[in-house]
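Chapter review: from sequence to fold.
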Amino acid sequence: MKFSRSWQCAFTVVIVSLSLFVPTRANAADDEFAAMVKQRVQDWQPTKDERLLDQVGWASDLVEARRLAKKHQRPLFVFTYSGSTTRANAIALQRC
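The token string follows.
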């Protein structure tokens, strides 16, 4: 019995769709690889000494920064840049 092209395509779609619902178990190599990746990610996390920047008292605006500096009797450091995102040589577009 010979099926038309449209029936062949429909049959293929049904078979592929059903195969997606067949449960599969990951093999041991996949589990070992996943464990290795998880360990590597954990090893690359910054240490406490490398996260000292998190202890900086960041402020969202200058008024808040001045208030916090005065309250805690700490110096105020302000970082700004001048540039445009439309110019090719703008600081905002340059990589550090």
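Two observations follow directly from the output. Residues 59-96 form one domain. The radius of gyration is 29 Å.
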